[in-house]
Automatic annotation (TrEMBL):
Cleavable signal peptide: none
MF terms (GO), sorted A to Z: aminoacyl-tRNA deacylase activity; ATP binding; catalytic activity, acting on a protein; proline-tRNA ligase activity; transferase activity
Keywords: Aminoacyl-tRNA synthetase, ATP-binding, Cytoplasm, Ligase, Nucleotide-binding, Protein biosynthesis
InterPro entries: aa-tRNA-synt_IIb, aa-tRNA-synth_II, aa-tRNA-synth_II/BPL/LPL, Anticodon-bd, Anticodon-bd_dom_sf, Pro-tRNA-ligase_IIa, Pro-tRNA-synth_IIa_bac-type, Pro-tRNA-Synthase_IIa_type1
Pfam family, one: tRNA-synt_2b
EC number: 6.1.1.15
Record's keyword annotation contains ATP-binding: yes
Protein name according to UniProt: Proline--tRNA ligase
One Gene Ontology biological process: prolyl-tRNA aminoacylation
Entry note about domains: Consists of three domains: the N-terminal catalytic domain, the editing domain and the C-terminal anticodon-binding domain.
Family in the record: Belongs to the class-II aminoacyl-tRNA synthetase family. ProS type 1 subfamily.
């Protein structure tokens, strides 16, 4: 019997000043987590019980899908990362350290290199493939700005899995098995989620989906079709371009106008009385070691991921003012494509720039802009491509009507890696003909600790957390109104023992606190059911059962309590989602 007086549940009445979002506030107030340093948390007993339940669901579904669990080291030698080129590519988020022999290591943010080297050394024949290996382990990423509690932290718990196949068809089968497993996992956890097309980022690979928990505080924007199944994150979402009819010969000649201290799109629209869609925004990027001028309409935003993918680049970022001055002699804010020598600076543009028939652009001279600018006539573009962020109201690329936006927190990610890591590390197998072939890989991750935070973010009210039954720290909170009354205490203990014997997890609040304090803590902790034991229990044989999610209450006979509680806890639909 777990008595609340003996458990470490340090609830707080006040909201911590550094907590910005509901899940962070409630994790701290409900005594579930405590910060040790920025982005680094201790999980207290209640949180750990929920984490273990999430992990159990993950294990069940991974095993069901054919995964085999192992555990790899968190400390990884730099040599492996040099083999794949990621030691430099991953950037400052990689936590690096040296041992006493001055050998370089990293604390693993992910385990592609380690798992690939392990499989390389242990499997060499097609007869031992396919295989899918996974682990649940602490990961480390030195986030530049840890925030939102467990949503973006520097140390976190993750499930990462890796499949190895001999054919693309085998990878497709493993990928679909993981996609389906993730759908079951997040449904069982009780999340409102959506799988969206995504960019692979530093992991690499093609065929990528993110599983997003939908919530207003999400750092990711999801673009989805109002009438279809299309969904993608903002980095990945394709923009449909249909050429418009261009006016022929009716745009006046280019004219230079004086625009002192007018540098931004907003300033230009006011100073020249033009719509932002007529402005050609010109930004100079450093793409690896090359400088590129990228053009988009003034009402659009450049998508740097699309730019990076267009060049298959490793690094993409805005060029420094010194770089721009050296290349075209122009200060930032007055850069434009007219007169630029493409031998020195390549010009590329988003598809929609070619429809700007009477545009405004920087004059490549301080305090001046050009009006009546037209692509093709006044400047040349080396290539057009989809280089902008999609916008609400744009056409869906899959024919599902118009695009709408939602916010989400990434809780899972599935990748088709192909042979990127197996080729770099030498993970090969001998095929039926005795020929050496690179293994074809997939990668599949779930943020376990982030899933806990996302569940709280989606399930709370002004009083506290509202746990889904499947991951609640306990199922039932038993509270005697006055623990000093022996009859209430004895009945509460009897109820707790009977429920536990029936497989129900119970937290028994035996503290000598006022009933109001206990009820506030119960709402804050948010267990699915609360059983209140008052004098009615001894006098009339009745106890009150309250459902946390709906607030509905029932007076139940003590003799019928166990079966009633079990029937409430079993109220789920055919998908496993809870109805209360």
């Amino acid at each position: 019997m777990l008595k609340q007086s003996q458990m470490l549940i340090p609830t707080l009445r006040e909201v911590p000043s550094d907590a910005e979002i509901a899940s962070h506030k409630l994790l701290l107030r409900a005594g579930m987590a405590r910060q040790l340093a920025s982005g680094i948390y201790s999980y207290l007993p209640l949180a750990l019980r929920t984490l273990q339940k999430i992990q159990a669901i993950v294990r069940e579904e991974m095993n069901r899908a054919g995964g085999q669990e192992l555990l790899m080291p968190a400390m990884q030698p730099a040599e492996l990362w040099h083999q794949t080129g990621r030691w430099d590519v991953y950037g400052p988020e990689l936590v690096r350290l040296k041992d006493r022999h001055d050998r370089s290591f990293a604390l693993g943010p992910t385990h592609e290199e380690v798992i690939t080297s392990l499989v390389r050394d242990e499997i060499n024949s097609y007869k031992k493939l396919p295989i899918n290996l996974y682990q649940i382990q602490t990961k480390f990423r030195d986030e530049v700005r840890p925030r939102f509690g467990l949503i973006r932290s520097r140390e976190f718990i993750m499930k990462d899995a890796y499949s190895f196949d001999t054919t693309q068809e085998g990878l497709d089968k493993n990928f679909q098995a993981m996609y389906d497993a993730y759908t079951r996992i997040f449904t069982r956890v009780g999340l409102n989620f959506r799988a969206v097309e995504a960019d692979a980022g530093a992991i690499g690979g093609k065929g990528t989906y993110e599983f997003m928990a939908l919530c207003d505080i999400g750092e990711d924007t999801i673009a989805y079709s109002e009438n279809g199944d299309y969904a993608a994150n903002l980095e990945k979402a394709e923009v449909v371009y249909k050429p418009s009819a261009k006016p022929q010969g009716d745009t006046p000649a280019v004219e230079k106008v004086h625009t002192p201290d007018v540098k931004t799109i907003e300033q230009l629209t006011q100073a020249l009385d033009v719509e932002a869609s007529r402005i050609i925004k010109s930004l100079v990027y450093r793409v690896d070691e090359k400088l590129v001028m990228v053009l988009v309409r003034g009402d659009h935003e450049i998508n740097e991921v699309k730019l990076k993918n267009l060049y298959d680049a490793t690094h993409v970022g805005l060029a420094s003012e010194q770089d721009i001055l050296a290349a075209i002699g122009t200060p930032v804010g007055f850069v434009g494509p007219v007169g630029v020598d493409q031998e020195k600076l390549e010009i590329i543009a988003d598809n929609f720039v070619q429809d700007v028939a009477d545009g405004v652009a920087g004059a490549n001279e301080k305090d001046y802009h050009l009006v009546h600018v037209q692509a093709g006539r006044d400047f040349t573009v080396s290539r057009y491509a989809d280089l902008r962020n999609i916008m609400e109201g744009d056409e869906c690329p899959r024919g599902g009507g118009l695009i709408k936006f939602a916010r989400g927190v990434e809780v899972g990610h599935v990748f088709k890696l192909g042979t990127k890591y197996s080729t770099a590390i030498g993970a090969t197998y001998l095929d039926e003909n005795g020929r050496s072939q690179p293994m074809i890989m997939g990668c599949y991750g779930i943020g376990v600790s982030r899933t806990l935070a996302a569940a709280i973010e989606q399930n709370n009210d002004e009083h506290g957390i509202i746990w889904p039954v499947s991951i609640a720290p306990f199922h039932v909170h038993v509270i005697p109104v006055n623990a000093k009354v022996e009859a209430q205490r004895l009945i509460s203990e009897e109820i707790t023992e009977a429920l536990e014997a029936a497989g129900v997890e119970v937290l028994y609040d035996d503290r000598p606190e006022r009933a109001g304090v206990k009820f506030k803590d119960a709402d804050l902790i948010g267990l699915p059911l609360r059983i209140t034991v008052s004098d009615k229990a001894s006098e009339e044989g009745l106890v009150e059962v309250r459902v946390r999610r709906t607030g509905e209450t029932h007076e139940v006979k003590r003799t019928e309590l166990v079966s009633f509680v079990k029937s409430l806890l079993a109220r789920v639909d055919s998908t496993g989602a809870e109805l209360f």
